[in-house]
From TrEMBL:
One of its GO terms (molecular function) is protein serine/threonine kinase activity. Pfam families: Pkinase. CDD domains: STKc_PknB_like. Its EC number is 2.7.11.1. This is non-specific serine/threonine protein kinase. Residues 22-294 form the Protein kinase domain. It comes from Spongiactinospora rosea. Coiled coil: none annotated. Keywords: ATP-binding, Kinase, Nucleotide-binding, Serine/threonine-protein kinase, Transferase.
Length: 507
């Protein structure tokens, strides 16, 4: 897929402030469908990582197939957010924030200072056996949490394992992780088999749609083999691809006579590299074997010294027990009296439509007041990400704007902008951004920033396959003001790409 650099440039640039808290710094890396940036947390002063879904992953959104690519990418990004939140704890970066920035979804995560395992292994070929065991045990303990939580990582490889300066191991990049529930939706990367060459399990290469945790254990077996030999299990041949060898060929065996391993570790590695998932040893078996090779409390550091040193948590007694997977949230029953007072979703949807007609006619009235009065109650009942709840918050913001309460309106619009919405609700995010742009003029007297933000909204809006009439109306409504402030020609050109909407009449 080619890249259109004229229109789909990075939305994020050094110096930008994300969610009024994170100042973007240098780009860290580009890979797959995402870009990673360093950023400063303006609240704590810490350096964090920001992962943004790169726009060059889809050069044009006018083609139906390419819109589908973006939709799938957004859904995978949302799943990664949910999994980082679910598995919060040792060995997985903390999720610090999620939202959209100029139309692109972003994850803000804890930055793990250290080296990824690929860089570490390039410096230590191979690492001492006690270091390999320390890394392996930590990886398996993290995988144990992930697997017990009903998820397969699917992309376990050295580049997705980070060795922190403290010696602790972290697994990153849950972009193609998959629930083990066979009913879960599959978001397969467009045109790709999920995983990375050299570490993909044979069943994934064969196209199995519901891989088990044993697929991750195969990837771990590939890394374990590399720890010992400093070589990958298979290398490219003139007539055989690496994938073909992983799918069909017996893996080479570790030999205790030539490699610094016992028969137990050689047998474990060979078992993990079995072609059939059912033939591989369990994760518990792997932990039992590798723990025999760990350093003991008070042991000296490896020689030559390693940096980072994965044996440190074991030698100095700083090993933390794995955090148990949090139980599913309990659905508490509300008192029956409140449940009777609550409108049904259909009733509240009808009320919202009437209130939105009032707002679009610039005549907020009784229906708008009723929505404002019930907004907190429905948010508590249905959650802040429910589409009806977000629409209600936008009605509240619109009422404040029409009444001249610009600071109040700005706060409400920005609250919606920071809400982690689902991909299907991006039109509501764009509607909130129009409000934020409009509030910039009376709040900060910044018509240029308002115009820039409005223009970004229009670009994003015309790429959506589905959107509400109201967001089109709001874009056109504010465009009339922008035209009066010196942007008439550019405004008229851009408005030609979005739908015209007639102002509704209020009965």
């Amino acid at each position: 897929m080619s890249v259109n650099t004229t229109e789909w440039e990075d939305a994020m640039r050094p110096g930008d402030v994300l969610f009024e808290r994170f100042r973007i710094g240098a780009g860290l890396k580009t890979g797959g469908m995402a870009r990673v940036w360093l950023a400063e947390d303006l609240h704590s002063g810490e350096t964090v990582a920001v992962k943004a879904l790169g726009r060059d992953y889809w050069p044009s959104l006018y083609d139906v197939d390419e819109r589908s690519v973006r939709s799938e990418a957004l859904k995978r990004f949302e799943r990664e957010r949910d999994l980082l939140d679910k598995f919060a704890g040792p060995g997985i970066p903390r999720l610090l924030g999620y939202g959209f920035f100029r139309g692109d979804p972003c994850l803000v995560m804890e930055l793990i200072s250290g080296k990824n395992l690929r860089d570490f292994l390039s410096l230590h070929q191979p690492p001492p056996m006690i270091a390999a065991a320390a890394i392996g045990v930590q990886i398996l303990e993290i995988l144990d949490r992930i697997h017990k939580g009903g998820v397969v990582h699917r992309d376990l490889k050295p580049q997705n394992v980070v060795l922190a300066n403290s010696g602790t191991v972290h697994i990153i990049d849950f972009g193609i992780a998959l629930p083990t529930d066979p009913q879960a939706t599959r978001y397969t990367r467009h045109g790709h088999t999920p995983g990375s060459t050299g570490y993909m399990a044979p069943e994934i290469i064969r196209g199995v749609k519901n891989p088990t945790p044993a697929a991750d254990l195969y990837g771990f077996g590939c890394m374990l083999y590399e720890f010992v030999t400093a070589k990958q299990v298979f290398s490219e041949l003139p007539d055989r691809s690496i994938e073909d060898q992983h799918r069909n060929d017996l893996a080479p065996r570790l030999d205790p006579a030539r490699h610094p391993v016992g028969a137990d570790l050689a047998e474990l590695t060979g078992g993990l590299l079995q072609k059939e998932a059912a033939d591989r040893p369990s994760l518990a078996d792997g932990l039992e074997v590798l723990r025999r090779y760990l350093p003991r409390l008070g042991d000296p550091a490896p020689s030559p010294r390693l940096h980072p040193d994965p044996t440190l948590p074991f030698r100095e007694g700083r090993e933390s027990p794995p955090v148990p997977v949090p139980p599913a949230p309990v659905q508490r029953q509300r008192p029956s009296v409140k449940r009777r007072l609550m409108p049904s979703r259909r009733e509240f949807g009808d009320l919202l439509e009437a209130a939105e007609r009032e707002v679009m006619a610039q005549q907020p009235g009784t229906q708008t007041e009723r929505v404002a009065a019930q907004a907190r109650e429905v948010e508590a009942a249905w959650g802040p990400r429910e589409r009806l709840v977000v629409r209600a918050q936008l009605v509240r913001a619109d009422r404040a704007r029409l009444e001249g309460d610009w600071p109040g309106a700005g706060r409400l619009y920005r609250t919606v902008e920071r809400t982690p919405l689902d991909a299907k609700d991006v039109d509501l995010l764009l509607e909130a951004r129009v409000g934020v742009a409009e509030c910039l003029v009376p709040e900060k007297d910044d018509t240029e920033a308002a115009f820039t933000l409005w223009k970004a909204v229009v670009v994003d809006l015309r790429g959506l396959s589905r959107s509400s009439l109201k967001v089109h109306w709001r874009c056109r409504e504010f465009a009339a003001e922008l035209a009066e402030w010196g942007h008439r020609d550019e405004v008229e050109t851009m408005l030609g790409s979005i739908s015209a909407v007639r102002r509704p009449e209020v009965p």
